[in-house]
Amino acid sequence: MTLNRRPVASLWIGDRLHYINQLCLRSHLDMGHPVTLYCTDEVRNVPEGVEIRPAIEIMEIDRGIVEETSASFLSNVFRYKMIAKTGAIWVDCDAYCHRPFPEDQTHIFAGHGMRGALNCGVVAIPRTGRLMEALLDYYDNLPDYPAWWGNKQKKKMDKLSASVPLAVRIYQTERTAFGPQAFTWFAQQTGEIDKAMPPETLYPVPFQLNDVFYDPHCNVEGHFTDRTLSVHLYTNGTRPWWRKNPPLAGSYMDRMCKKHGIDPSAALED
Asked: What global pTM score does this model have?
């Protein structure tokens, strides 16, 4: 295996990967991208070839905040701090590498869904500059309310106890206020939203259709174009049955696992 492409990295909070995560990490290796997985715990089933590093090298992970929100909450902060420190491309652990990422493209992110908002499942931006500065400042110095909120969101948050940490109150009001909402807002403010790639590059299958990955009668590749680089598999929205059982024979998930040598039955969700 020759790893001569741009490095990619991700974060894992916990001690065990699901087979979908193993598949996605392995897919980047097989496309020639060095892969680093920053971990909070000892993870025993990481695919061979992935470099494991302690998450504390990038930032301290407040497990109390994670318990009150979700693992994805802190990953929204972590990804930009990681990019700023290392220059690696951020990839979620459920982003499958369909084609190698361009070597000379400074901005890699894309719109998602029907509303035109950016997603941050795959992100490359300059390590320094207005967008990075705005994102890090937002997370390091949380405002009373996100700048893009209207009265509806503010009133909803005001009903929460002031004793709850501000970050948790913002999250409980709107889960995506630290992810796609923030990324979209600040990219709009800096003008870098104009560098967004179309949805089919990184999110060819809409979130609402994520069952197609497990259906042997669906033509998943029919969603792809010659511009598709990554395929988001949406583990957060996957039905519990799919997480606890091997994929059906002939399905996209089954075919990709066989292609990359992943045994789904060895890493199912309990």
From this structure: 0.95
